[in-house]
UniProtKB/TrEMBL annotation:
Protein family according to the UniProt entry: Belongs to the transferase hexapeptide repeat family.
Stored Pfam families: Hexapep, PglD_N
Keywords linked to the UniProt accession: Acyltransferase, Amino-acid biosynthesis, Diaminopimelate biosynthesis, Lysine biosynthesis, Repeat, Transferase
Protein species of origin: Chryseobacterium gotjawalense
NADP recorded as keyword: no
Annotated protein name in UniProt: Acetyltransferase
Gene3D superfamilies linked to this entry: 3.40.50.20, Hexapeptide repeat proteins
Domain PglD N-terminal: 2-81
Length: 212
C-alpha cells in the first residue's frame, strides 16, 4: 500500500498499518518536499514521481490511502492516484471501537486508535477520524470530513462534505453542519450551521464565511 504523504498525518496512518500487521509492501509518496531521503525509518521507500508509483503498483499491488490533511487536498490526491491506476483503501485501527450493527465506512477513510463509532453510523469517503473522537448512533458524515482528536458527534447529527470539526468540539444531537464548514476547537454546536462558514465558541457562533 502507498501512503500519500510522508510528514504529519502519514505517520499516524503508518501506525494503523503497524497495529494491524499490514506493513508488507508499504511505501510513502511525496513529490513536493525535495529534502526527503529515499527511505523512511530505514524501512519504507519514499516514492517521488509518477513512474515510481506505477512501478510500485505493478510490483506490490495498487492499493493506496491518503496520509495528508486538508479536505480539498485529499480530494485532489485521490483523483491523481486513481488516474495512476490506484485503488483507494480505508485504514481502521484495531484499537478503535467500531459498532457491530449498521455501520458503513466509505472508501479511503482513516480511523485512528481510541476512536469510537457507534451503531447505525454512516461515514463518507476519505474521512479522517482522529484519536479518541466519538461518533454516536445515527450520525452521518459526508466525504472528505475531518474529525479532530476528542471531538464528539452526538446522535443523529450530520456533517457535510469537506467540513472539519476541531479538537474537543461537540456537535449536539440532531444538529446539521453544512458543507465546507470549519468548527473551531472546543466549540459546542447547538444549532444548524450553513454551508461555507467558520464557527467557534460556546455556544458556537459564525465568525466569518469560508471561501476555500
Amino acid at each position: 500500500m502507498i501512503i500519500i504523504g510522508v510528514k504529519g498525518f502519514a505517520k499516524e496512518v503508518l501506525e494503523i498499518l503497524h497495529q494491524n500487521n499490514q506493513l508488507e509492501g508499504v511505501a510513502f509518496y511525496d513529490d513536493v518536499n525535495h529534502d526527503l531521503p529515499d527511505v523512511l525509518y530505514n524501512q519504507f521507500p519514499i516514492l517521488k514521481n509518477e513512474k515510481q508509483v506505477k512501478e510500485h503498483f505493478q510490483n506490490s499491488g495498487n492499493d493506496f490511502t491518503i496520509g495528508i490533511g486538508g479536505p480539498l487536498l485529499r480530494k485532489k490526491m485521490l483523483e491523481k492516484f486513481e488516474a495512476f491506476g490506484g485503488k483507494l483503501k480505508s485504514t481502521v485501527s484495531k484499537f478503535s471501537d467500531i459498532g457491530s450493527y449498521g455501520v458503513q465506512i466509505g472508501e479511503g477513510s482513516n480511523i485512528l486508535s481510541g476512536a469510537i463509532v457507534s451503531n447505525s453510523v454512516y461515514i463518507g469517503n476519505a474521512n479522517m477520524i482522529y484519536y479518541n473522537a466519538i461518533i454516536t448512533h445515527d450520525v452521518i458524515t459526508g466525504d472528505y470530513v475531518e474529525i479532530s482528536p476528542g471531538a464528539k458527534l452526538l446522535g443523529r447529527c450530520s456533517v457535510g462534505d469537506f467540513s472539519s470539526i476541531g479538537s474537543n468540539a461537540v456537535i449536539l444531537p440532531n444538529v446539521k453542519v453544512g458543507r465546507n464548514v470549519i468548527v473551531g476547537a472546543g466549540a459546542v454546536v447547538t444549532k444548524d450551521l450553513p454551508d461555507h462558514c467558520v464557527a467557534v465558541g460556546i455556544p458556537a457562533k459564525i465568525i466569518r464565511m469560508n471561501h476555500d
